[in-house]
Amino acid sequence: MQETSVVAPPSGSRDRLCHDSNVRRIVIIAVLGVALIVCAVVSLAVGSSTIPLARVLELLRHPDDSNESYVVTGLRTTRTVTGIVVGLALAVAGAVMQAVTRNPIADPGLLGVNSGASLAIVLGASFGGATSVSAQFGLASAGALVAAALVYSVSAWGGGGASPVRLVLAGVAFSAAASGIIQGLLLLFPQTFNTFRFWDVGALTRTDFPMWLLIGPVVVGLVLVLAVSKGLSNIALGDDVATALGTRVALVRGVSLVALTLLCASATAAAGPISFVGLMVPLAAARAMGPVRSWIILCSAVAGPVLLLSADILGRILARPSEIQVGLLTAFVGSPVLLYMVFRLKGERA
Length: 350
What we know:
Layout: H1 11-45, H2 53-61, H3 67-101, H4 113-127, H5 133-155, H6 164-188, H7 190-200, H8 211-227, H9 229-235, H10 239-244, H11 249-271, H12 277-289, H13 293-318, H14 326-349
């Protein structure tokens, strides 16, 4: 019998392939960066009132006391910045979530973080009259943190650690319970319902909060994500493989949950529970960037704002002079994507 041997590709070929992949990734991110700039400009130029682009640019350079100046430098600027930060936070949180749970259809709501933030806001409004901006941001952060800690503790109960399957099951159970409590409170407290129903739909129209309350926690969350990005790539391969590669799995997963809490709490408090951004963007980023989690996170950080601003702009155009809230549009687009992923995964396992 003739022996056959497997010949490894020359190191030069491997280096060339790696270089080509990195060049392709950089080009994709550069294109997304240009798209983000275009979306930001269009977001400033398009609204329920028609203001010429030249006038918009003039008001950005030299604001005055006119109503047009308030619309451009106040409402639209705040809305655009909010869309960029919220889109970035949700997309990066989704990329981290999919690595931590090793679930390609995971999103930030899977661990109950968004539900915890929503429940805390409803509880505060119902029993404490907490309707101010700072109170809602604080409640959302506390609720998200408690939800993440509770879900993680329940999933780790009984030994064996907080496995991805346990995290998902505990998160789904908590989200269902929180949703039931929220609906009950809204029925019991009509005033809370009037306050909550505008926030619950998911929108970028809120302008009554200090921007540092949104940007500050998101920056801290991003720093934490960058600190554990290499460990996230290893965890995505499995806990045993990650441990063999020297990754401290429990530490990386714990830091990731803190980062998720900060990112999701800030985004939820500012814009309400916007769904599917954390699902769609990391999925597309993983296909474009490959298995390296740091590249996926970077791509998600740029693509998330592009998706959210595009949906917001589309909502202004379709229903002018009124508008469709961005949360409705992302849900409308995201539901088919989720169904497609379910059938695709089913086909892969068949």
